[in-house]
TrEMBL record:
This is General stress protein. Coiled coil: none annotated. It comes from Halobacillus dabanensis. Residues 1-72, 101-153 are annotated as: Disordered. The lineage of its organism: Bacteria, Bacillati, Bacillota, Bacilli, Bacillales. InterPro entries: Stress/Virulence-Domain.
Amino acid sequence: MAKNNKQNKNQTMTTEEAGRKGGKTTAQNHDQEFYEEIGQKGGETTAQNHDQEFYEEIGQKGGETTAQNHDQEFYEEIGQKGGETTAQEHDQEFYEEIGKKGGETTAQEHDQEFYEEIGQKGGETTSSKYGEEHYEKIGKKGGRNSGNGSNNN
């Protein structure tokens, strides 16, 4: 009788259990190349069946879910990792190029008031961070360099 109960349990396997069992079997029978190939095919099919709005919507949902599940420390950590990886893969020319593009785009999208506002904020932040001594020091240094430069002309 115990045997029959065991057989009945196997016959009434849940969908979740069947999926897990099938996944394990597939993983044992296939390599990374197989998964890359079916992933590529799935991506191409999805791209054919959906428009940009679809991707924006699922990206938005994914971003909201990620934000709910993670704190600032998580974003700082992945930002740090991404920055390090980018730095390893690119040279100074890359950074100059993207900086120039960013600067041009910002200049097209913003007016003088924007630059005055961010300059003000930057000045206030620097002032509170370094204090009056910092400005005296760089002022003296600038004055000396300016004086030296005028003697050379």
